[in-house]
Structures are given as C-alpha cells and as structure tokens.
Amino acid sequence: MYDLLLIRYGEIGTKGKNRHVFEQRLQANIAAALRDLGIDEVERAYTRLYVPVKADLEEIIQRLQKVFGIASFSPVMRVPLEVEAIEEAAVKLVAESLRERRISPKDKLTFKVITHRANKGFPLTSPEMNKRLGACLLRKYPQLTVDVHQPQLSVEVEIREHYTYIYSERIPGVGGLPVGVSGKGVLLLSGGIDSPVAGYQMMKRGVEITAVHFHSYPFTSERAKEKVLDLAKVLSSYGGPVPVHVVHFTEIQKAINEHCPPKLMVTIMRRMMLRLAEAVAQRERAAALITGESLGQVASQTMESIAATNAVVRLPVFRPLIGFDKTEIVDLAERIGTYSISIQPYEDCCTIFVPRHPETHPKLAEVERAEERLPMEELMEEALARTEVVVCGK
Ligand code: ATP
Ligand code: MG
User: What pTM, to 2 d.p., does this model score?
Assistant: First the structure.
C-alpha cells in the first residue's frame, strides 16, 4: 500500500551553511544502510528525504531505526494534487488501519485529519481539506468519530509542490547526527561491556569509528579476538564498516611485567594503549581517541589514574560514559545489541598479569620513572608492525 518512506531530520536542519553537508551525508548513510535490500535511491526535497518501498517494509523500518540523524519517519502514500485522489488514498489508509487494529464495524475509533499545506497553490485551505476529508471518512466508516484532542488515529496529509503525501504513523528515529559529519575517532575497543557503548555514543554524535583492540595472544585466545570483531560488527550496523586494528600487545605486557613495579602495571599498560591508539589515529587521520571509562568504576578510573594515562597523548580523549552508572551502561548495551556478546566469558588482556592491589592514586613522576626501564620505541614499533586490520560490517 505504501509507496515511500518519508524521513524527517531534526538537529541537522539547524546547522546554517553546513546544512548541505549534513543532508548529503544523511542521504548517503541511508542509501548505504539499504543498499543490500536493493534500494539505492534516496530522494531529497526540501527538508525531507524519501525512500521507495522496494523491499520488505518491516526490514526497511528496522534499518532506518539505526541511522543516526533521523528524527522520525513515516510510511506514506504518494498521490497527485487532486482532491479525489487524496480521498481515495485516505480511505485505503483508514481501511488498513482498522484491519491492523482489528476494529470491527461495531467498534469505535476516534480520529482526526491533519492537513499541512506547503503548496499554497492548492485550491483548498488546510481547514477546508480537514473538513472535506473528515466528512468523507465519516461517511465511509461508521466506526469513526472525531476527536481533535487525543485521537486514536491521525490521518496526516502533506500537500507539497508536486505531490500529496498521506500517512498515519510517525516512527521515532534514533536522533543524533549523521555518522561522518563530526570527523573520525579511534575507539579503544575491549571485549567488555563499556567500550562498545562508548563507541555507539560517539557515533550518535556523528563520529566515524575506527577501532583498536589490544590482543595478548597466546595469553588470550583467538576467540577473545573474534568476540571483539563481533562487537565491531554490531557497531557497524549503526554507521557503516568499522575497521578494527588488532594490536599484538603480548610483548609489551611481558616487558611491563618484567621491568615495572606491580602496583603501577595497570597505569603503565593503559599509557601504552593510549600511545599506540594515538599512533593508529595518526595513520588513520583520526582526530580523537575514545574509551569506555566511567569515573570511579575501577582502580584505573580514578581522576589520578585518568590524569596519569591521559598525559601521554596530545589528541583529545573522549569518555562519553564518564558520568554513567554501570546499570545505565548495561541498559544501553542491551538496547543496542552488544550486551549478549560482551558477557561471553573470554578473558581480556587486562585480566592477565594484573596485580591484586593496583595503585588508585598513581603519581605521574613515579610512573614516568618506572617507564624509563622499558625499551619504549622498540616495543611500540614491534606492536604496530604486528598490527592486523580487519574491516567489520558491510
Ligand atoms: P570495558 O567494559 O570497555 O572493557 P572496563 O570497565 O573493563 O571497560 P577497563 O578494563 O579499565 O574498563 O578499560 C577501560 C577502557 O580501556 C575500556 O573501556 C576500553 O576503552 C579500553 N581498553 C581496555 N582494554 C582494552 C583492550 N584490550 N583493547 C582495547 N581497548 C581496551
Ligand atoms: Mg574491560
């Protein structure tokens, strides 16, 4: 029955001169999300985008619900600018709605017609059109009564320049900004619960993600790596392919274990991770680093620990979960589909070699002194040279 999906965007409509960039990116992202369904044309007109219903409607809806930048969308019928054609379509729309809601001729349903007339050349005004269409529907369906305040069914009619669009449903989008408009960031992606959610939050603000994962084979298994790739794949469903740089971290951990005081191991390990992530960011031309840290969650996430790790990099480090409780992070992880993967029991590199009592208030000078014993350049070069890149998602 529906010809198109009409897509509305929110925040991006307000970006002044950059608006075109935002609109084009959203258009491209929607096309990319639907391409494998055989849909690649996304029409842009004024502040709307239109997608043809050339595949299973439910599947298209599910895909659109994951595209950042969409405020809401509606399956619509498109008809010419003629009153009779509009009436005919509205009758069909209501018939379908009654059927879906299992409303028999004996039942009642309240409704309202809402006309938006952008095309002032159309002969009837919005109130006239509301009246005319309301009367037509009341004649046709005895179940209907008008309720202009809280109708159970809204029949919306948009009269535009070339066509009229008719619909009854507004499906909320995820909001945010189209992925890509805010630049690229390197996400430190562990197999845990937090970092995938951190990636999601930044994608929501328009950041394209490249991930880096530190892998301690053979201390951690191949399966632990697969798990991270699975997480990246879920993230890719919100904004296109996610390359994962799998960095061989084993030698670094061994060296730290051998040369540094146990209580500083975690801090030094984190500093190595950030240094390597920054090197990956340089290669990838990314402008920020992203972690899943949340203040006070563990020893390495106190202010002092964060300060000590942050000190080794120049790029900004975004920590979108810094003010989240664990329960809030878990809720989000469940909603975005990463939780069930994150809780699979494969060990992370952080869980090996870790002392029972890590320092919660590391002193920067002390950490720097301890690090002097490491063959820093050699370790970094070796780890980067053994980095493998796997692109996840379509
Ligand atoms: P997560 O649930 O994301 O693993 P966490 O609560 O376990 O977080 P930590 O282990 O202290 O916290 O890690 C803090 C952050 O450091 C992670 O959110 C992630 O961004 C990064 N990180 C930790 N381990 C790795 C790893 N093996 N590879 C890549 N990044 C990592
Ligand atoms: Mg972890």
Answer: 0.93
